[in-house]
Design brief:
Layout (H helix, E strand, L loop, with lengths): L2 E11 L3 H8 L11 E7 L2 E7 L7 H7 L5 E8 L15 E5 L2 E8 L23 H13 L12 H16 L5 E5 L4 E5 L2 E2 L6 E2 L4 E7 L18 E7 L9 E2 L4 E6 L2 E7 L4
Antiparallel strand pairs: 1-4, 1-12, 2-3, 2-4, 5-6, 6-7, 7-8, 8-14, 9-10, 11-12, 11-13, 14-15
Helix pairs in contact: 3-4
C-alpha cells in the first residue's frame, strides 16, 4: 500500500529524516515505487514537489532533505499504483484551489467501484489523472464548496469536520480509506485499515500519530528529523506506520482527527454526528 505522512506545528517546521524514512518504504524489498510527493503550506498557497519515480532513488527528495523548507502544515505521500499509470499526473498529494485557498489531499488504500459511483462524480472539479483517489478528492471539494464561499473567510471547523466525516464514511464503503486532507488552516486525518506487507491481512490501524512539545533548543526531536525553532514548539506527526521508537498512538478504524498548530483540535468517528 501507499505511505502517508503529515505534520502540523504551531510554528513553521521542516522535515528531513522522517521523509527519508518514509522513502525507505519505497525501496527494495517493498514495491512502493510508483511516485511520491510532498506539499508544504505557505499561507493559503502550497509548495508542491512530486515525481513519478521511486522516492528512494530521488534526487529531488535528497534536495529537500538538504534545504530548510519550513511549513506549519506538511503532507507527503509515496505511491504504490493500484489504479492509474505510474505518472506525474497520478502522483500525490493532489491540490486544487477553492475560494482563493489551496486544498491538499492524499489517500492510502484502494477503492474498487468508486470511479463509477454517482456520489463521487463532481460537478465542478475534474481529475487530471486516472486514480480513484483524485476523483474522491474532487467529490470532497464539491461538498466543501457549500462552505467555502467568500475569499478570505474560513468556515467554522465544526462545519468542515461534519463534511469530512460524512465523506470518510462514504469512502470506507468502497475499501481502505486512510487519507490526509488540509485547507491550510487544519490537517484532517482519517484512519481506516491497512494491508500488512507481511501477512496480507487488512486491519486497523491505518494511521498512527505522535505528539511532541519541544523546548527552544534548536535541536532535532528524537530522530524524527523535525527541526525545532527558537520558541516552544508543539508538533504533531501522523503516518501510515511509526517512523521511530517513540510512543506513536494508533488511530481507531473510522476515526477522524483534526490537528491544528501541533495539537489535536477534535476527534470524531466517521459517520457520527
Amino acid at each position: 500500500m501507499c505511505e502517508l505522512l503529515g505534520l502540523s506545528s504551531n510554528v513553521p517546521a521542516t522535515l528531513s529524516i522522517s521523509l527519508q524514512r518514509l522513502a525507505g518504504h519505497g525501496a527494495p524489498p517493498t514495491s512502493v515505487r510508483d511516485g511520491w510527493g510532498v506539499a508544504y503550506y505557505d499561507g493559503a498557497d502550497v509548495r508542491l514537489i512530486k515525481d513519478a519515480g521511486p522516492a528512494s532513488d530521488s534526487d529531488l527528495l535528497r534536495f529537500i532533505s538538504h534545504h530548510d523548507l519550513r511549513s506549519p502544515i506538511v503532507m507527503a505521500h509515496i505511491r504504490k499504483a493500484t489504479v492509474g499509470a505510474p505518472s506525474y499526473r497520478n502522483a500525490q498529494p493532489f491540490v486544487r484551489e477553492l475560494t482563493g485557498r489551496m486544498h491538499c489531499f492524499a489517500h492510502n488504500g484502494w477503492l474498487p467501484g468508486l470511479l463509477e459511483a454517482p456520489a463521487f462524480l463532481s460537478s465542478r472539479f475534474a481529475p487530471v489523472g486516472e486514480t480513484d483517489s483524485e476523483q474522491a478528492f474532487c467529490a470532497l471539494l464539491d461538498d466543501l464548496g457549500a462552505l467555502w464561499i467568500k475569499p478570505g473567510d474560513i468556515p467554522p471547523l465544526e462545519a468542515r469536520l461534519n463534511i469530512v466525516t460524512a465523506f470518510a464514511a462514504q469512502l470506507r464503503q468502497f475499501g481502505p480509506a486512510n487519507f490526509l486532507y488540509s485547507d491550510g488552516d487544519a490537517l484532517f486525518a482519517h484512519g481506516d485499515r491497512r494491508k500488512s506487507p507481511v501477512t496480507g491481512k487488512v486491519s486497523a490501524p491505518g494511521l498512527v500519530y505522535l505528539l511532541r512539545d519541544c523546548p527552544p533548543t534548536g535541536a532535532i526531536i528524537a530522530g524524527n528529523g523535525v527541526s525545532v525553532s527558537a520558541v516552544n514548539q508543539a508538533i504533531a506527526l501522523v503516518a501510515s506506520v511509526p517512523l521511530s521508537a517513540e510512543p506513536w498512538q494508533e488511530m481507531s478504524e473510522g476515526e477522524v482527527t483534526v490537528f491544528r498548530a501541533g495539537r489535536i483540535a477534535v476527534k470524531r468517528m466517521a459517520g457520527t454526528a
